[in-house]
Design goal:
Elements: H1 7-11, E1 15-17, E2 22-23, E3 45-56, E4 59-68, E5 77-83, H2 97-104, E6 109-113, H3 125-139, H4 141-144, E7 146-156, H5 158-168, E8 190-194, H6 200-204, H7 210-216, H8 224-229, E9 243-248, H9 257-266, E10 271-276, H10 289-305
Parallel strand pairs: 5-6, 5-7, 7-8, 8-9, 9-10
Antiparallel strand pairs: 1-2, 1-10, 3-4, 4-6
Helix pairs in contact: 2-10
Length: 306
């Protein structure tokens, strides 16, 4: 397929790469200062909080949900699941809300899942929670005016790893978990991975990452099969969705991404790469990269979900 690119992305300094073409512009001469953007529910959007999508003992796995008000008077709308980062051991959905808000005003029902972190439960608990959130969206589609056939997933850093894993393992019985709305599909129709490792074996085979050890319950040398199963690149097949990768120019959190794109293209699955010049690792939380990311995500999801 041909890559569809909005000309404004070139103006604002985003580098976009498709199968064989590239567009680039000079980075701004002065690097912008990172400043966390705080959430602010926009006009015309209703925020539903603490919706329970799964429960394990006393622990409720919840999601917050932005629903555009005009959804109630229109046909069902596409939905997006946002997965926050934080090295699998910290982080909060609040950090993903500003991006979700910008997608909600563009006509998407946007959900953010408060998945279990490594201090609560080891892998694959977080993946199970993300899949429970997808099942919740489909099981409650009529209530929140969701088009069940057009759902996407997006995440950054550790959330990007989980986003890629969710995207590549839709309806994989071995990885579905038992949290809520059993039997409902977890396949997504579009996937965005931001600044995340796709091959954990290559990333951790020769080194010990303390947060990875906490999440997976051991080192790669001790649990090679777990690291392999948790690597999105392991699960690439012909049934996977179109996938966009967004990265900061000098970000090191992208091991396995080039190889994964090669596998996707070989199978005829559309994949693109967008690189933000001068951006820091959590670029989607700060301006000007937050708005740049929202524009990239909106164009991609509009193409595949609308």
């Amino acid at each position: 397929m041909q890559c569809h690119v909005i000309a404004s992305f070139i103006v604002m300094g985003v580098v976009l790469m498709g199968g064989s073409s590239a567009w680039a512009a000079d980075a701004a001469p002065t690097k912008p200062r990172f400043k966390l953007v705080k959430p602010q529910t926009p006009q015309g959007v209703t925020l539903h909080t603490k919706l329970v999508c799964a429960q394990y003992g006393d622990r409720e796995v919840t999601l917050d949900l932005y629903v555009p008000d005009h959804a109630k008077a229109s046909t069902p709308m596409p939905a997006l699941l946002f997965i926050h980062g934080g090295g699998w051991w910290k982080g909060t959905i609040e950090h993903s809300k500003p991006l979700a808000e910008r997608l909600a005003v563009r006509g998407y029902v946007c959900a953010l899942v408060d998945y279990r972190l490594s201090g609560e439960a080891k892998y694959p608990a977080a993946l199970h929670d993300c899949k429970a959130a997808l099942r919740y969206l489909r099981a409650n589609a009529a209530k929140y005016h969701i088009d069940v056939d057009h759902i996407g997933v997006i995440g950054g850093s550790a959330g990007g790893h989980l986003s890629g894993l969710v995207g590549m393992t839709g309806d994989d019985a071995a990885l579905e978990g038992d949290g809520g709305s059993a039997g409902v599909s977890t396949k997504v129709q579009a996937c965005i991975v931001m600044a995340a490792t796709m091959d954990l074996v290559s990333a951790y085979g020769e080194k010990i990452g303390k947060h990875a050890v906490a999440f997976f319950g051991g080192t790669c040398a001790e649990k090679p099969d777990v690291y392999k199963q948790a690597s999105p690149i392991t699960h690439v097949d012909a049934h996977d969705p179109p996938t966009l990768f967004i990265e900061a120019e000098h970000d090191t959190h992208k091991i396995g991404r080039p190889e994964m794109q090669t596998k996707l293209r070989t199978l005829g699955i559309h994949t693109d790469l967008a690189t933000l010049p001068g951006a820091p690792h959590p670029f989607w939380m700060s301006q000007p990269w937050l708005d740049q990311t929202a524009d990239l995500a909106a164009e991609f999801f509009d193409q595949y979900l609308k």
